[in-house]
Amino acid sequence: MNLAAKDQKKIIEVLNTILECELAGVVRYTHYALMVFGHNRIPIVKWLRDQASESLQHAHIAGEHITTLGGHPSLKIGSLIETHKHSLNDILKESLHHEQSQIQNLYNLLKLTEGKSIFLEEYARDMISEEEIHVSEVNKMLRTQPK
Question: Is 9 left (phi over 0), alpha (psi -120 to 50) or beta?
């Protein structure tokens, strides 16, 4: 990779934001999984735990990109706000907000890497695609069947 030093520094900063957001996702989805009750608990808890595992995997990848660029992965965790609202709709709305925030971080990375690093550009595009799929899934879960 032939990135200018100033570009590399900005890219590492955005990757650290992505890393922090993914680590927050691990905590957030783990918490949500513990707070689900009712008839549909088992499949919903499984989905939330899968989201937590995926967030951890995404954090690993972001961290690897940071160290590849010579940076230092952050020990911070992104924003975690406890609303004490644990209905399934509230959990899904919070999840949606979290995913949309991460998509913005990824678009920021894409802007910084476009035309400068195919490797990082493709990483950003792949992650945007995955996160947009999550947003569409959550949106579908929030919709009710037409009557």
Answer: alpha
The model's pTM is 0.93
Hey, what are 12's tokens?
């590492």
From first to last of the 147 residues of the chain, give the pLDDT tens digit.
677 888 999 999 999 999 999 999 999 999 999 999 999 999 999 999 999 999 999 999 999 999 999 999 999 999 988 888 889 999 999 999 999 999 999 999 999 999 999 999 999 999 999 999 999 999 999 987 776
Structure tokens that stand for 114 in this block: 């476009």
Indicate the fold that domain 5-70+86-142 takes in CATH. Ferritin (1.20.1260)
